[in-house]
Design a protein that fits this description.
single chain; 190 residues; mainly alpha; two-stranded antiparallel sheet; 7 helices; 5% strand
């Protein structure tokens, strides 16, 4: 059976177009690797409280939430369950205290909530199986790593923290070559 070129291309386009529609029909398309869309919004709100924008960029501008998402399927996979539970605990505590999700609280309420969490004084019933002070500390540490670290890890988009600190961007990634005493070039990983 001989297939004409035009018919083959038409059938191929039809098949490829049909395949690309399958995910759209079966589930919500997400740009996140690990986080759900709601979890990403929650982390973005929390990290903006930790590193707020002022005359310089804040956590949202640095896309700190992207760091969390990338690292939770990479180096921080051991923290996946802690983040799932901790973020749920934040939402349930916020609903219990303010009758709103954390992202819907005003700025001062979010600040008050996180200060209470930092001291471990949120309702304990909402935090079974997760220690709120250590979870807050983890959020704080990972936020700082995301904001001040290399953009290759997912945060610090556009080197915003380096611009804020007025330091040069790292120019060399990979191997640096240093001349030895005898004139030969030695390689050192950077």
């Amino acid at each position: 059976m001989e297939v004409k070129r035009r018919e083959f291309i038409r059938q191929l386009c039809f098949a490829c177009g049909s395949i690309s529609l399958i995910p759209a029909c079966t589930s919500e398309i997400s740009t996140w690797r690990f986080l759900t869309a709601d979890e990403a919004k929650l982390i973005e709100a929390i990290t903006e409280q930790i590193i707020p924008a002022d005359q310089d960029a804040g956590a949202t501008d640095a896309r700190v939430v992207n760091f969390f998402d990338r690292q939770l399927i990479g180096y921080y996979t051991r923290h996946q369950e802690t983040y799932r539970k901790g973020l749920q605990n934040i939402e349930s505590s916020s609903l219990k205290i303010f009758h709103k999700n954390f992202v819907n609280l005003d700025w001062d309420q979010q600040t008050e909530f996180l200060e209470t969490m930092e001291t471990g004084e949120l309702p304990e019933a909402e935090w079974e199986g997760n220690e709120q002070r250590s979870f807050f500390r983890m959020l704080l540490d990972h936020s700082m790593q995301a904001f001040y670290g290399s953009p290759r890890h997912g945060g610090n988009c556009g080197y915003v923290s380096y611009k804020m600190l007025k330091i040069d961007y790292p120019h060399v990634i990979g191997q640096n070559r240093y001349p030895s005493e005898n004139g030969n070039t030695n390689l050192k990983a950077s």
